[in-house]
Write a structure and sequence with these properties.
Residues 56-135, 138-217 form the Sulfotransferase domain. It is an enzyme of class 2 (transferase). By secondary structure, this protein is an alpha+beta fold. The protein has a single domain, classed as Rossmann fold (3-Layer(aba) Sandwich). Helices cover 42% and strands 12% of the residues. The strands form two sheets. It has a three-stranded antiparallel beta sheet with strand order 1-2-3. Strands 4-5 form a two-stranded parallel ribbon. The longest helix has 14 residues, at 163-176.
């Protein structure tokens, strides 16, 4: 049974709207209050059913255009600091997205190989409620040029939207899990304005308590 056929019943019952973009049109489906294209939705349903996160798995979560690419580079550099020297770290020659797979896109990679890797890192733009049972950033400047797209964004009908619900879910989850220290909620503005301090906090959250200023500055140069 293909993934499409398996989840056809669920998908067919969801609210749907047509989106026109670049002289083509496609459908968005509303699942758990958020909007996704069909391919992403199938992956979400598949991962919810099959993916089992380990205690050591680190998720980097944030909506589109909120600084997650920068954070991927920082997190990978911190986690791999004892595995590569400063000149051979693959983050220097590979895109951050190649080093940290995306949960809803690379579902086959995540399901089959994450347990075998030394670096259990996953990135996602999914809202908190769509991560399943196995498991932020502050909006600043999400560049949208078309009036129609701005309208969709404000109405909460953009990809992964509504945006504000996306952010508030992670903020609430970080407060709910504060005592267990499981979620580190980070604003893009904070990281940009006080990078050194927040990289140290991020490293501490990941278990690297003794990261020195010189090492942090090296990561920032990378």
């Amino acid at each position: 049974m293909s993934m499409n056929m398996k989840y056809e019943g669920i998908i067919s019952s969801l609210p749907r709207r047509e989106v026109s973009q670049n002289f083509s049109s496609f459908d968005y489906y509303q699942y758990k209050g958020f909007w996704f294209p069909l391919a992403f939705l199938e992956s979400i349903l598949f991962m919810e059913e099959n993916f089992k996160a380990q205690p050591s798995t680190i998720f980097l979560c944030g909506d589109l255009k909120t600084g997650t690419t920068w954070l991927k580079s920082l997190i990978f550099s911190i986690m791999t600091r004892h595995h590569f020297d400063d000149s051979t770290n693959p983050i220097l020659t590979k895109l951050p997205h190649d080093r940290i797979p995306t949960f809803e896109i690379d579902c086959d990679i995540n399901l089959n190989s994450l347990d075998d890797t030394k670096f259990p890192l996953l990135g996602t733009h999914l809202p908190y409620t769509c991560l399943g049972e196995t498991i932020s950033h502050q909006f600043k400047d999400n560049p949208i040029t078309l009036e129609q797209e701005i309208k969709r964004f404000l109405e909460g009908k953009s990809l992964y939207g509504p945006y504000w619900d996306h952010v508030s879910e992670y903020r609430k989850a970080s407060k709910d899990h504060h005592e267990m220290n499981e979620i580190f909620f980070l604003k893009y503005e904070d990281l940009k304005n006080d990078t050194l301090s927040y990289v140290k906090k991020l490293a501490k959250f990941m278990g690297n308590h003794f990261l020195k200023r010189k090492r942090i500055n090296l990561y920032l140069k990378k």
